[in-house]
Amino acid sequence: MKVNLNYGRSTLPVELRDDWDVTVFRKFDMPVLPAPRQALEHAFAAPLGSPPLATVARSARSACILICDITRPVPNHLLLGPLIRCLLHAGMAPDAITVLVATGLHRPNEGAELEELVGDPWVLETVRVVNHHARNDDDHVHVGTTRSGTVVRLDRRFVEADLRLVTGLVEPHFMAGWSGGRKVIAPGVAHAETITTFHSYRYMEHAATANCVLDGNPLHTDQLEIVGMIGGALAVNVVIDERRRVSFLNFGEIVSSHLKAVDHVRRYAEVPSRRRFPTVITSCAGYPLDQNYYQTVKGMVGPMDILEPGGDLIVVSECSGGFGSSEFVDAQRRLVALGPDRFLETLSRKSRADIDEWQTEMQVKPMRVGRIHLFAGELAEEYWPLTGVNRVDDLAHCVERCVGRSASRSVAVIPEGPYVIPVMQGV
Question: pLDDT of 373-419, one tens digit each?
């Protein structure tokens, strides 16, 4: 039996023996919109919890549109042109419209990468497209403090716009429960102080800071509070299938429209399982998510629920863009030097996280369940000692060895990685 795992811009085949008990976890068959552009125009005219976009735009002098960074496969080529044209037709001047890349603390997207991200030359020629820089103090304005004590500063270009618009992909997220909507605002365009508080130990170690969980999730609770602080926003929410085709699309008030999208994707992305597996093979969903090791951690966290304690988790991720930030390198170096328990103990004493160490903290979670093995064909030699996981050069041999180590021949395979979340039920 051969299963193709999402890997880079293509797939990576893995051969599984016929005498193994193999379970493949994929999204349930999703409907696909036959005419997504027409569906978008209809959504603008009949939004959820808001007047039509054209009506709202006629009373606004400026607009700021948030888009996710290059690590998310949002179909911006489909969304941005019609959205901006609607604003222009309502009388808004082109120089009053800003498209802001919600980088959080990730690096900016520039040059050819920005062109790929936007996906529409007309947009780049017509309106201003810029990156958010979380460490630039002057770019941010204080909007309040959450009930949990997080000081919130956001990019002033978004806060001070008459019309605040958010675009995003709604998919499982290993911290915020589900991506998109309110998450594009915070941490998307938040100041570094806000982001590092959001990602501190008290948030990251909370039981509800997990894939597909909104109720009781402290990040989600604060994100909703932040939406209220700025007086709300409007959102375009998109759900895609395994082949990156649009399955669902809506527009409207950011909270209610996002939850409607979550209701849709939850039915397909959460896949029940009645058992755990000693061997689990997964991916980091392919390009653009598997560009670096930092994002690869999401692929490690996704299958935790179905990995037997002490089992083997095999992850494939191309890592063509390298390891991640210098701060992430430092965090991984500390993990390797201290070990998981001592590393976590150092985090517990902080009110704010060091930049990007939260991704290392999330890696500790699957490390506590079982052994992690990584196939990353493009990861530079110098970074392997910092991964803290087992290096795989021969995928077939690794799979054979892991299955052979177990008394059971049960194997789980998740080709689309963290976009599909196996969930234990009835055990």
Answer: 999 999 999 999 999 999 999 999 999 999 999 888 999 999 999 99
Tokens of 169: 């992909």
Give the DSSP letter of residue 190: B
Tell me the pLDDT tens digit for each residue of 318-357: 999 999 999 999 999 999 999 999 999 999 999 999 999 9
pLDDT of residue 427: 57
What is d(CA 26, CA 422) in angstroms, rounded to the nearest whole number? 9
**305: how many CB neighbours lie within 10 A of its CB?**
17
Q: Is the dihedral of CA 410, 413, 418, 419 positive or negative?
A: negative
CB environment 306-326: b (16+ within 10 A), e (fewer) = bbbeebbbbbbbbbbbbbbbe
Q: How far apart are the first and last CA of the chain?
A: 28
DSSP β-bridge partners for residue 14: 3
Please identify which residue in the block is written with the tokens 């809506």: 250
20 token code pair: 């193994």
Question: What single letter denotes the amino acid at residue 17?
Answer: R
Rounded to a whole number of angstroms, the CA Rg of the chain reads: 21
Report which DSSP code applies to 291: G
Angstrom distance (rounded) from CA 349 to CA 186: 24
Contact indicator for 232, 221 with CB cutoff of 8 Å: no
Concatenate the DSSP letters of all residues of 356-393 into one string: THHHHHHHHHHHTTSEEEEE-TT--GGGHHHH-SEE-S
User: Hey, what are 243's tokens?
Assistant: 């082949």
Phi/psi at 112 (5° precision)? -60, -30
Structure tokens of 293?
């090791």
**Per-chain mean pLDDT for the chain:** 97
Alpha-carbon distance of 280 to 293, in angstroms, equals: 19
pLDDT surpassing 80 at residue 426: no
Judge whether 164 and 157 are in contact, CB under 8 Å: no
3-state SS class at 269:
helix
Residue 149, Cβ density class (10 Å: 0-12 exposed, 13-18 middle, ≥19 buried) = exposed
Residues 21, 26, 28, 31, CA torsion sign: negative
**205 and 106 in contact (C-beta within 8 Å)?**
no
* pTM of this structure: 0.96
Distances in Å between the Cα of 202 and the Cα atoms of 217, 300, 338, 362 are: 12, 21, 20, 13
H or E element, residue 319: none
Backbone angles phi and psi of 63, in degrees to 5: -145, 145
Angle between helix 76-89 and helix 36-45 axes, rounded to 10 deg: 40
* Cα dihedral 184→190→193→199 (10° resolution): 0
